[in-house]
Amino acid sequence: MDIYLPIAELSVNGLVIVLLGLGVGLMSGLFGVGGGFLTTPLLMFYGIPPAVAVASSATQVTGSSVSGAMAHWRRGGVDIRMGAVLVVGGVIGAGIGSIIFRALQKIGQIDVTITLIYVTFLTLVGLSMLIETVRTLRRQASGAKPAKMKRHNRLIAALPGRMRFRAAGLYISPLAPLIIGVVVGILTFVMGIGGGLIMVPILIYILGMSVSTVVGTSLFQIVFTTAAITLLHAVQSKTVDIVLAALLLVGGVLGAQLGARIAMNLPPEKLRMALAILVLIVAGRLLVGLTWTPTNLYTVQLAG
């Protein structure tokens, strides 16, 4: 079932794209993170231009994050004040990211830059997760007590203008989450990720946010930030392929629900290790594609 993608300007097998979205949604439900960091590389492997893959992935992340955010909202797992600050930072970061994105497009380096950022980002994240998971498993095997988590570091505590984030259990300056939102907004625009893979660890380990509200607040931020990013991509870079995003969303929603049910019966440490290995495999595949010299440097295709 071939479907033409008007923005990507190529035909794809619609079933393959839906299954790709299903697979990413399944992993998203299993591991509890947004699937954007996997969707974009997988679309690039399939032959979708990186710029279109980034913009369309952000569109899919927006849609798939809404249901999750609403579920956490209903059970009181969202800190609205913290989420609002993160959204403001995310929108500012999206504006900065759009400037960077357009500049790279003008000099013709957007595809290479996106790939390089992904290789670096996924390698660092994958290694960090793998090391932390191995340490946790070793502590569990030896019977040692888990290390006590710090509320937040001294730099965060020294920032001026503190305010109380009740649901998050914090009394800190809003400058800290604002800066975090800006950084995540830039990465979300350039990479097409949801930001949860970065946001959740930062909110827990740097800000010391309550675990009970961190996922819902992160999803709340993702919905509004990626919506703004989708609009910017559509208006400025014109790289949002709505047909591609719709196909991904169909599979992603179904996969996320299935993955969440499976995850309930699996140990979290083993899930984190599986995710870390998966992230490193994707990074390695991108690195090979970036450095391997193809047999045919040029191809000519005749229309019709």
TrEMBL record:
<keyword id="KW-1003">Cell membrane</keyword>
<keyword id="KW-1133">Transmembrane helix</keyword>
<dbReference type="InterPro" id="IPR002781">
    <property type="entry name" value="TM_pro_TauE-like"/>
</dbReference>
<feature type="transmembrane region" description="Helical">
    <location>
        <begin position="116"/>
        <end position="134"/>
    </location>
</feature>
<feature type="transmembrane region" description="Helical">
    <location>
        <begin position="12"/>
        <end position="37"/>
    </location>
</feature>
<comment type="similarity">
    <text>Belongs to the 4-toluene sulfonate uptake permease (TSUP) (TC 2.A.102) family.</text>
</comment>
<protein>
    <recommendedName>
        <fullName>Probable membrane transporter protein</fullName>
    </recommendedName>
</protein>
<keyword id="KW-0472">Membrane</keyword>
<feature type="transmembrane region" description="Helical">
    <location>
        <begin position="214"/>
        <end position="236"/>
    </location>
</feature>
<dbReference type="Pfam" id="PF01925">
    <property type="entry name" value="TauE"/>
</dbReference>
<feature type="transmembrane region" description="Helical">
    <location>
        <begin position="274"/>
        <end position="292"/>
    </location>
</feature>
<feature type="transmembrane region" description="Helical">
    <location>
        <begin position="242"/>
        <end position="262"/>
    </location>
</feature>
<feature type="transmembrane region" description="Helical">
    <location>
        <begin position="178"/>
        <end position="207"/>
    </location>
</feature>
<dbReference type="InterPro" id="IPR051598">
    <property type="entry name" value="TSUP/Inactive_protease-like"/>
</dbReference>
<keyword id="KW-0812">Transmembrane</keyword>
<feature type="transmembrane region" description="Helical">
    <location>
        <begin position="84"/>
        <end position="104"/>
    </location>
</feature>
<dbReference type="GO" id="GO:0005886">
    <property type="term" value="C:plasma membrane"/>
</dbReference>
